[in-house]
Design brief:
By secondary structure, the chain is α/β, with parallel strands linked by helices. It folds into two domains: about 35 residues; about 350 residues, Spore Coat Polysaccharide Biosynthesis Protein SpsA, Chain A (Alpha-Beta Complex), CATH 3.90.550. About 35% of the residues lie in helices and about 15% in strands. The longest helix is centred in the first third of the chain and has 34 residues. The N and C termini lie far apart (about 95 Å).
Length: about 400
């Protein structure tokens, strides 16, 4: 009997010990949960913030190889665009730790306000900025005149004046791919609003559901964080709404596109019509372009730019790619003698179609060289959005180095 009592008392003591241990474990867990971040699933922005995603670019640019000279080549015409681009060029100058030794500004406007702004840029650093005045106004079949100014021994990064955002490591990555792959005639950046890349971005998960705000708001937030989609709230409309690609923009200027709360509604948005093409709706429709831009702003805010990126070079073979943001070796272009390029062929035709075909030299895309191109001529509706204002606010908030560029 005594043995049985001792056994029962031992089991009771063991149970008490286990219960006390569990209580201590529960107290510890509750204490930890009080100081740990609580991930909310209410909004995509709250998820990112709670999970500890950082904002802004965290990319580390590589070291520029010794003896490499890199020149920017800007086809200039519009202050309204370049007021944003200027900040990214300044960040990428060698004086600020970037790769650009100089910038050639190919003048292609007669508007006095635009010309005065260019003179202001030149005067800010005449050692680095150089103005080039072609013999006449340049258009599709006379752009070859700009390419005659290239020199041997330099890499050139050609940048359209409506490139409104450049990732911090884009220019180094673009040039580095050209250095590493000298047989590539052209290396293009991974460009937002540049068919056929939009098709790829959609299927890589980089695009998000947005619709234009149907009615003009009575109040819109302003300030340095105006560019952030999370500061503008959600689109408020019916769940069965779809956007007709032929639809005109809302009737008021600077309209906003707002995030749709339900990610599954992306199938009802303009980008669902994207296909792998360089013309057609993927190129012409302003609504597709708008959704790509607002998606980029979200990805910048949430530090999810990796959604666009791919590691291996994408070879275009004989498919066209737009030359909004690309790198060439000056030697390669001089060797082709731009003065004798065939009449009736634009510079894009020559650089990404005819010359690669004739020389059997590929055109590739650097998947880690991100930039945003604002608008093609058929996308007039983009000018009626608030995107120019948003990109300017983004540059001022995150990227401008000097007070002059912030103005």
């Amino acid at each position: 009997m005594g043995v049985l009592l001792q056994s029962a008392n031992g089991q009771k003591a063991l149970r008490i010990t286990v219960i006390i241990s569990c209580l201590f474990g529960l107290v510890y867990f509750l204490a930890k949960s009080e100081v740990s971040p609580r991930i909310s699933l209410n909004t995509p922005w709250e998820v990112a913030e709670a999970a500890g995603f950082t904002t802004g670019s965290t990319n580390k640019t590589s070291t520029k190889p010794e003896g490499v000279v890199v020149s920017g080549l800007i086809f200039y015409g519009r202050k309204s665009r370049v007021s944003s681009l200027r900040c990214y060029l300044e960040r990428n100058m060698v004086d600020n730790g970037g790769w650009l030794d100089e910038i050639l500004w190919i003048v292609n406007t007669s508007e006095q306000e635009d010309l005065r702004y260019l003179d202001e840029i030149i005067a800010s650093n005449p050692m680095r900025h150089k103005k080039v005045n072609p013999e006449k106004h340049l258009s599709t079949y006379s752009f070859f005149m700009a390419w005659r100014h290239l020199e041997r021994g330099k890499y050139y990064v050609k940048i359209d004046d409506d490139i409104l955002w450049i990732d911090d490591d884009a220019i180094p990555n673009l040039v580095q791919q050209k250095i590493d792959r000298p047989n590539d005639l052209v290396v293009s950046g991974n460009i937002i609003n540049n068919p056929p890349l939009g098709f790829m971005h959609y299927r890589m998960g980089a695009l998000h559901p947005y619709f234009p705000e149907p009615n003009e708001p009575s109040y819109v937030t302003n300030g340095t964080e105006y560019w952030k989609p999370s500061h503008h709230g959600y689109w408020d409309g019916p769940n069965d709404f779809t956007w007709d690609l032929e639809a005109e923009p809302p009737k008021y200027q600077n309209h906003r596109w707002l995030r749709v709360r339900d990610d599954n509604m992306i199938y009802q948005t303009p980008v669902a019509r994207l296909v792998y093409e360089v013309w057609g709706d993927s190129y012409k429709k302003w609504a597709i372009g708008a959704q790509m831009h607002y998606s980029l702003l979200e990805n910048i805010e949430q530090d999810t730019l990796d959604l666009y990126k791919f590691e291996k070079p994408w070879t275009m073979y004989e498919d066209r790619i737009r030359i909004n943001f690309m790198c060439v070796n000056g030697d390669d272009i001089v060797d082709t003698d731009p003065s004798n390029w065939p009449e009736g062929q634009g510079d894009e035709d020559m650089l990404v179609l005819k010359l690669p075909h004739d020389l059997r030299r590929p055109v590739t895309i650097a998947g880690n060289a991100l930039a945003a191109h604002f608008q093609y001529s058929d996308q007039n509706g983009l000018g009626e959005t608030d995107l120019l204002k948003r990109y300017r606010a983004l540059a001022q908030d995150r990227y401008c180095l000097s007070s002059t560029a912030r103005r």
